[in-house]
Each structure stands twice: as structure tokens, then as C-alpha cells.
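Service request form, structural biology core

Requester: graduate student, group of Dr. S.
Request type: structure prediction, single chain
Budget code: on file
Notes: please return the result as C-alpha cells.

Sequence provided:
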Amino acid sequence: MNKFLLILFLTVSLGNTALASDNEPGLFENWFNAMERTVKAPTSYDLYRPLRVVHMRFNFTKEQIARYNEDPGGIGVGMSRIEGYNEHSLYAMGFRDSHSRVQGVLGYGWYHKLLKPGSLFNVSYGFTISGQMRHEYSYIPIPLPLPLLSADFGPFSAQAAYVPGGPGWGNIAIFWLKVRIPIGAKPPEPLTERHEEGEKQDGSEKS
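Core staff response, request fulfilled:
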């Protein structure tokens, strides 16, 4: 697994170097810029509550499932910034891992919303780049990119990440609840039909 993570991290790093040009920022530079904007002007402070860890039954024996902890407990904090259809989040969480040992996570998450920004209900997909701190690695942060899904209802979000893997390791789904406490600038409101008609009329009058 350590070799897999190292190869994946080096691949992303080389891809960032290859994609960058003199005029366009690279992948990592875009991430760092988004994190900087989030820290300087967040639209919410966030609370996280880990809910469940599910070891995919097709990948583990009954004996392993019986030994593994799937109730992570714990808590987390963070901040987010909504920019149109995109949401950038910085977070820190602590919980119990599969062996009931303390695990810490620090990360950046990006979500792309499928419905209009400001909608009461929304669905998002994205990814996270995190540092996983586990007892096996003496709590040295191990980089781990993961896919994300989110179902949003007002300030509440039910979110999930999936850890890919092979026989006997990985293939784990992680679920948590995120609660946003709005601050500063409000996220953009969804356009109504009246607003859209008004914008069209304003445009025609100017022309």
C-alpha cells in the first residue's frame, strides 16, 4: 500500500509539472490559490461528525469484519468558501480507525455542485487531498487523494469518501456529517425566473 501511495503521489506531481505553462498555473498552484482564498475569506466555519466506516463485504472475510471497528466516533472542524458552483474546504478530523486506534486527518476538499448555487438542496462530487496520520506510520502524515460525494440540505451535508484498494486492504467507504456556520459574504443566491427575465430586459434596454 505504501508503494501505491508513493507512486500515485509522484504521478500527480509529475502531471502537475507537465501541465503547467508560463501563462497558466499548474494543478498544485490552483489548489494552493484556492486554499489561500478559503483561509482569507471563508464563507463558513464547519463542524464535522464522522458517522460510519464500511468495509466492503466482498473484500474482507467475516473474521476480519468481526474484528474491525466501523463506528469511528470523533469530531472535526474546518472552513469553506463557496465560489459559484465550486466549494473549497479545509478540515481537520480525529476519530477511531479500523483497529480502534486514534487517527487524524488534515485535508483540502473540492466539491462541484450540480444544481444552482444557493439551492436549498444540492448534490456535489469532488475530491480531497489529505494527510492521514495513523499509528502504523508513527502519525507521520501520509498523502492520500480520495473521491468525494456530498448531499446538501441548507447548511447540512451528508458526505462520503471511498478508499480504493485490493484484497484484504482498502475498499472502504467513509461517511460523515458536515454543518456549515455561515460567516462573511453570503453564497450567491439561485436565479429565479423573475430575476432572469429582469436581466434579459436590462440587457435589451442597454443594447
